[in-house]
Structure formats: structure tokens, C-alpha cells
Design goal:
Length: 144
């Protein structure tokens, strides 16, 4: 119970707790992203356009959770600069996501939703490492 309390109610006191919170936040964003991708492709929108739209909606969800729950206690010089850097990492991650989706959907021949799950797994690790390093580490000068 104490471990769950550390994850869900206290300030994140370790990188591990932050990573777990990022995982929960990313999971929620993924469910929204995945559902929107499925809906848009069912409506006839191109898979890669659908993926871009759904990914960007998920990016907004992860940003919201990151500032209010995952990386709390970070002193921010400018929320505008923070969001720009956060979004820039997200755009780079979109490129990774689209590339992995392309590889597994077009080249390997998996269903686009299965390929999306693989792409999301790669992307969440990419995002966490870059955001933690660039934006939310104690040594970062971007938001301090």
C-alpha cells in the first residue's frame, strides 16, 4: 500500500517512481491515441495521417500529466519554452513512431494497430529518456 501511495499521491521521490508515473501517463495517452487511430482509419483516413493526428492528441495528454504529476517540483523559467522543447521532443518521437509503424505495417505486413503497439513501446522509451534528460533533470538549464 505504501508503494502505491508513493506512486499515486506523493511527489515522485525517485527516478523509478517518475518512470512509473510516466508509464501510467503514457498508457492513458496511448489508449486515447490508439482509439483515435482506430476510429480515423475506420472512417477511411490514411493510416499515416491518422497516426499523426492521434499521436499529437496523445502528446497533449502526456504533456498535461507530465507537468502536473510526473515531473512535479521542477522550477520552470518559462512554460512556453518548456512546452516548445517538450513538443520538439514529441515531434522527433512522431518521426520515430511513423518510421516504426511504416516498418512493421508496410514492410513486415502486420495489421496497422499491431504495428502501432510496437511503435508506441519504442516511442515511450525514446520520449522518457529525452524529456528526462533535456527538460527535467537537475542539470537541465532549459526550464530552470
Amino acid at each position: 500500500m505504501n508503494f502505491l501511495k508513493r506512486i499515486f499521491s506523493n511527489k515522485p521521490d525517485t527516478n523509478f517512481i517518475q518512470f512509473l508515473r510516466y508509464g501510467v501517463s503514457s498508457g492513458i495517452a496511448f489508449l486515447i491515441d490508439f482509439s483515435l487511430l482506430a476510429l480515423l482509419t475506420k472512417l477511411g483516413v490514411n493510416v499515416f495521417i491518422s497516426n499523426m493526428i492521434s499521436f499529437l492528441v496523445g502528446l497533449g495528454v502526456v504533456y498535461y500529466f507530465s507537468i502536473i504529476w510526473v515531473f512535479t517540483g521542477t522550477k520552470r523559467k518559462s512554460k512556453y519554452i518548456e512546452f516548445l522543447v517538450f513538443a520538439a521532443v514529441g515531434i522527433a518521437a512522431l518521426g520515430v513512431n511513423e518510421l516504426v509503424l511504416f516498418m512493421f505495417y508496410k514492410k513486415v505486413g502486420l495489421h496497422h494497430l499491431i504495428a502501432k503497439i510496437i511503435a508506441a513501446g519504442v516511442t515511450v522509451i525514446f520520449n522518457y529518456i529525452l524529456r528526462k534528460t533535456i527538460l527535467y533533470s537537475k542539470k537541465s538549464e532549459v526550464v530552470k
